[in-house]
Amino acid sequence: MTRTMPKEALDCVVRATNERLHPLGFLRRGSVLRIMGPRTCGIVEFQRSTKSSQERLLFTVNLGVVCGDLLESGTADLTKAKVIDAHVRLRIGELLPGRPDKWWELTAHTDADALAREIGDLILDKAVPYIRQYLSVDSILALWESGLSPGLTNGRRVALLATLKATRQGGGG
Fold first, then answer.
1. What are phi and psi of 27, to 5 degrees?
2. Which residues contact 54 (CB under 8 A, 6 or more apart)?
3. What whole-number distance in Å separates Cα of residue 72 and Cα of residue 127?
4. Distance between CA 99 and CA 71 in Å, rounded?
5. What tens digit of pLDDT does each residue of 118-169 get?
6. CA separation for the pair 16, 105 (Å, rounded)
7. Which of 2, 128, 134, 164 stands 20 to 30 A from 157 (CA)?
8. Closest by alpha carbon to 132, among 66, 37, 62?
């Protein structure tokens, strides 16, 4: 095991995850991996905790899907979208048994390669299928029409659903 600083270990995890997701169509920009769909964008985003220090870095993985038809003017385009822009979003722990809020800790003693394999497996097994199922406007519409809205309040779901339906009736899709 090679000793690395926590920041370097996180860079290793992100880089290794990118190497595994790139053949599936994901592109990396910083700590965000994106896959483009028809007028949508799927996101895997590594988030550092504000409780991190130079010796100990905590992070989680956020997932999201952005519907381009709902991006407000002035908002980043789909190729620059982040989880904060997502219309369907959750943390990876929500896909695990018991739905824990999953955070990883990196220190100088962390085996970054082993952690990269663990997280890469988790993202491939759980996150990628989740993102892909909502990577179309129709699937987002169906999700919201079912009454579900991961990462959104019910009021926001209702408002966005109405906007999306009006956009599509107006010739937007």
1. -120, 140
2. 5, 6
3. 26
4. 29
5. 999 999 999 999 999 999 999 999 999 999 999 999 999 999 999 999 988 8
6. 17
7. 128
8. 37
Domain coordinates in residue numbering, the chain: 6-135
| Phi, then psi, of 37 in degrees rounded to 5 | -120, -175
The whole-angstrom distance between residue 14's C-alpha and the CA centroid of its chain comes to: 13
Of 65, 76, 33, the closest CA to residue 160 belongs to 65
Q: Is the dihedral of CA 36, 124, 61, 53 positive or negative?
A: negative
- Residue (of 141, 134, 131) closest to 26 by Cα position: 131
Half-sphere exposure of 60 (CA within 13 A, CB side): 16
- Which among 11, 14, 101, 105 has a CA at the least distance from the CA of 58? 105
Dist. CA 124–CA 122, nearest whole Å: 6
pLDDT digits (tens, 9 = 90+) for 61-119: 999 999 999 987 655 689 999 999 999 999 999 999 999 899 999 998 899 899 999 99
